[in-house]
Amino acid sequence: MHTFQRKARGLVLAGLAAVGLSGCFEGELSDNDQAILSDQPFAYVVRNYPEMGDTSSVNIRPPLDPRAPYAFRPGAKLMVRDRIALSSSERSILDDYFGSTAYDVKDLDVSPDGERMVFAAHGPANSPDNFTWNIYEYTFATGTIRRVLADDDLANAGEDTNPTYTNEGKIIFSSSRQHGRGDWRLLDLREYLEDFNEPASLLHSVNPDGTELAQITFGQFHDIEPSTMNDGQVVFIRFGRLYETLQDCTLENIDNPNFNQQPHGGGFGQGNGGKFPSGLEQPKEWTVEDKCGASLAGEVEGERVFVEDVLSMYRITPSGGNVHRYFGSLSEEFSDASFIHYMDPIPLDDGNLLTIMRHVFNPIYGGDVVMVNSQNFFAVGKPVDESVIGEAEESMTPGLVNFYPNQVSPAGWYSAVAPYGDGSGRLLASWAQCLISDAQITGVCEGSSTVDNLSDPQYGIWMVDPQQNTRLPVVQGHKRALYTDIVIADANELAQPYTGDQHSLNLEENTAVFHIRSVYDMDGADMAELYDGGIETRRDPSLTHPDDRSERFIRVLGMREIPPELEQAILTDPILNPSDGPQPPLGLTPLVGSGNRILYDVLSYGMVEPDGSAMVKVPADTSFTFEVVNKYGKRVDLIAAEDYNYNYLTQHPQSLLLEDGQLLKCYGCHDPEVDIPHARTDIELASANPGAPGDAMPFPNANPTIIAANWKDTMAEALLNSLGQLTTTWADTVRYEDYWSNPPDESLAFEIPYADLTTPAPVTDASCLTNWTSDCKATINYKEHIQPIWRECRINPNTGNTTACQNCHTAAEQGGKPCPGDSGSGASNGLLLGNGNASWDGRQLESYVELFEPDYYLKQENGEWVEVDPTVDGACPEGVQGDLTVLPDPGVCFARRLMSARGAIASARFFSLFDDDPDDDLYEVETAGTDAIRQSHMGMLTDAELRLIAEWLDSGAHLYNDPEKFEFPTP
Questions:
Q1: For residue 613, what pLDDT band results from cuts at 50, 70 and 90?
Q2: Would you state the pLDDT for residue 825?
Q3: Are 416 and 44 in contact (CB under 8 A)?
Q4: CA neighbor of 119 nearest in space, from 84, 86, 147, 152
């Protein structure tokens, strides 16, 4: 619910007639002229405001709705004036460019130096080269216009709108082209807004010369109206939807409400009578009956689905990093005010935001100029801390604006705004007085006016001075004129390229650092408290041994999408994905195997300290995610022990990207259902980690030589302070050392480097194994790095013989690998690990398919597990459950694969043969022959090989993480 702080203010209104009677001498400026004057050019878009039309359906968007970025309504004009003054003349700059007036234009923004303007325009419908929305740039000094994407085919491959300049000089805009998914005209892989059956409009970046086009946001949203803040971050509006199932709605109670009015005619603010309605102060909250009336039919008979549109402000770095909700709630009570939304947030010098807030179904297309106090609030009624006073939103205009459709607003309406940016606080705003007509006499609305004789408003552009409570005319409007965009060509001297917080560490070039206060922190709650005594017990080495903590390392993974051209080529390949014939299509499995569609590189590791804190270095300008792993390199979220309370430690769902030298701080983990924009780095959040007990003090019962510099410092910070360097490593090695025991236990130290591999290491440059830099990365491909492990000759510690895995796990006709002193006979033994393609499908690798083939087990009454065939009648009397089942119900069979693309922990059938990791015990299968198999395999694989396999499984078990290694089958 929106509530406003409004100042007690009078209204000083200078009309156009007063300007003409100012009495100034020739060559002098009147007081009114002086008040509005600025020598900076300004530009604006003017159009006739269209009829609202039928707005009764939840899926019908009215004209000029920000939720409909592709709508084309020709007839708008882009006007430019050389200075803000009554005497300046205006010129329409696009008529000659398009050779017609049947174009549309919107979304103006000015470059930080004030010299150029970028905007979105749509040429006439019959234009041969400008028939979609495109981004254009105008230079104020020369009056020249050019399209940013010069090539006609490229420019018209998408609907490009909502441009803004970054402080680095790039242009960020919203587009349906979804450049990261390839050319949709060949094969449409774009994400869609299902309710509207239209492609999502997502943020892209491009150089002003049209080079380096890249997509930077992804999802089934419209990411629109971006603006660049002084610190270089970009704030934008994300339009998405929430759905609420209403089980008790019956068809006889469903009507077809008009969203121009409150449901069923009983809403607050209806029937003005002798008083002025209070706008947003007390909006009507919607009842279940109201929601039923505004709902859609569900998939189940009698079920209704209530749809709520959510427009929240998000923030992102110019390169696409750290996207997060910046201001706005996902759980506000739905009410009449829910149709009132922010339009085009404009950053102010103090870090807050200026916006036009209006009701999307108001046929006047106006609202109020509102300052959003985003520096001190997450959302309305949600301050960043308890010391904050005031309101999250404050009107910046004289009088009280009524937002609701077809109602009287004596203070008028505002449709566009731009701050002067000169320190005066003045605004240039499009404003319309509320007018009534009575016996062909037009007058000004009063508090007693009713909607019966409302006249069309007359918008003009005015100077609004919130400090002086004045409003003075700048551009005289005309009947039904609507100004939808205003910008002032003023240089922004406060604009800085984005750098983020910078660290002072002596690290390699192109390196950044992120700091987690505690992996045991979930939205400020201590998750270790339930079973492990809390963080203070967890961090105390006299109470918690290092091996008692499964959470030992942060593993950093580079993230990259499948190249769209490759994805399209695979999906249309007639061998891999035939449209008909005996062989089924394989989709993307020839590339990604059993995993998801994100490809990964292993970048670095950092120790998780006893309090759950970690400081990890990452390559700069690289999209990455991270996960918490145990000492064996296995991601811990799948640990199934009943007293394990950290299953939220999944791979971080959002990609991150840091600038060179940046330090990113976070508090811990977060529940996505908790309505807090937790990724905001500019405010302090509650922390479950108490940190150091004081300045220059050690931690309780820990190594006293490790001193925290400051009260509340984490153990990771204290260790850095004491050692003078980070303990984090690049991916070439995983290293652990006990620093915290008193005294430290040297026997706990271990190191697992890639250099210990006797098979190919997952690096493209061998020098990385001896001199790893931020440019190095580990990229694991199954055929190149995992398959050779099965063929490598090794000493069997149980027999002393030299052999290879394939010597027991290859079809007899293929034979194994000859090893010194071993026949290499090759007997299948139920598992085929040969190098070739499968005999049953020549498009797939035999060993890969075998490793992920499920087997099925049933627990007998005596507690023993037996393997069964679920296709046999009665073999699984109570059905079959998936391979993540830990304790199936009686009579239920469950699947177990030797390896699982869900991760290394779930691949316990494999790892239990080679290691003694207790974290995956509950995924093991103990049949009568399990012990004998385990004894024959234990010690056969090295720590480096097991680490590599765990990394590969946890990152999706892809056949290829390097798409350049993919090879298409030959006919």
A1: very high
A2: 55
A3: yes
A4: 147
